[in-house]
Specification:
Strand order of the largest sheet: 1-2
Largest sheet: 2 strands, antiparallel
Distance between the termini: 27 Å
Strand content: under 5%
Order of helices and strands: HHEEHHHHEHHEHHHEHEH
């Protein structure tokens, strides 16, 4: 299944690469201690030796993963570094100015908040809050109308399917539907009242009792994208969103080998969530003695989380994040 992605440009203002580095150093100190305990022939190991051992282990892991999953996609190479490219032109009025421009955290396209409002892109409270916070310099950032519309990654045939599904619920043809409309059109007559209400709430992101065309479109698009291969999803990622995740990953990779432990990878996800304003989830760090110190490469990590990165594209400053509905609570 192919992905359809609009063309964007520009670069990403990097997230703090040292975020969580203190935890990474502590973890590597623990790993060194564990290594010393079990290597009786070398009770004391120099840190450079441990670094070299991590590099060799990392190369072996990457080679095995290439054998299984194919070559690493060029757009996610660990060695790639983005240079900051500041956009000084509004993509709508084309005025070259540094005054009150907000940049898209996904593609780097810039815009004036007034220009967005004139074109109907600030009609909802969520859109207005996201643009306002970005204008004030929020670390969370803002997604432009093109990037936050994840339905643009669908094929024309898939978009038509989503339109037909919405029309079935939109009985009054007012571009929204409520719980009663949703109940009347349920395909499963045996669904319990609680199940139906839960499903409706999943669509109603702002909790106003109605599901708009935008809310419905984004959820349905993400459901369809769940069925797309990891390789296709990775190819659709934009440089800035890759760099945000990569810089947090690097903060846990104190050996700069492109691999970290499974436990550290959970910390990367947690810090990535915080960087996007999703908050910290209780018990997100799940400990497992059998896997905590096994290694995961950057390539495998980003492939496994490519879908979640796309889920994070829509602005959700004033609504529930979409990642909470798709396995990253």
């Amino acid at each position: 299944m192919g992905l359809h992605s609009p063309c964007h440009g520009s670069m990403y203002t990097t997230y703090n690469a040292h975020h969580g580095s203190r935890d990474a150093q502590l973890e590597d100190t623990c790993l060194l201690f564990r290594t010393c305990l079990f290597d009786r022939a070398s009770p004391v190991i120099h840190v450079d030796t441990l670094k070299e051992r991590r590099r060799v282990e990392g190369d072996e892991i990457k080679l095995r993963e290439i054998t299984v999953s194919g070559p690493v996609a060029h757009n996610i190479l660990y060695e790639n570094m983005l240079e900051e490219d500041v956009c000084t032109e509004c993509s709508y009025c084309r005025m070259v100015t540094r005054d009150l421009l907000i940049e898209c955290r996904v593609c780097g396209k810039a815009a004036h908040r007034n220009c967005l409002g004139k074109r109907g892109y600030l009609d909802t409270e969520n859109q207005r809050v996201a643009a306002y916070e970005a204008e004030k310099g929020s670390d969370v950032g803002w997604s432009c109308p093109d990037c936050e519309d994840v339905s643009q990654l669908l094929s024309p045939e898939q978009v038509q399917i989503v339109i037909e599904r919405f029309d079935r619920y939109d009985i009054n043809q007012d571009n929204k539907f409520n719980l009663d409309d949703f109940r009347r059109c349920q395909s499963d007559p045996g669904a319990s009242k609680r199940t139906t209400e839960t499903s409706f709430t999943d669509y109603d992101r702002d909790g106003d009792g109605y599901v708009s065309w935008e809310e419905f479109r984004y959820i349905e698009a993400l459901k369809l994208l769940q069925g797309v291969s990891q390789a296709s999803l990775v190819r659709s990622l934009r440089p800035r969103e890759i760099e945000r995740m990569k810089n947090i990953f690097r903060g846990q990779d104190s050996f700069k080998a492109g691999v970290i432990t499974e436990q550290a990878s959970q910390m990367v996800v947690m810090n990535w969530r915080k960087s996007l304003g999703f908050g910290v989830v209780p018990n997100v760090m799940k400990s497992n003695r059998d896997t905590d110190f096994s290694l995961i490469s950057w390539d495998r990590f980003v492939r496994e989380h490519a879908f979640h990165i796309i889920c994070a594209r829509p602005n959700t400053t004033g609504i529930r994040p979409y990642v909470t509905s798709f396995g990253l609570c």
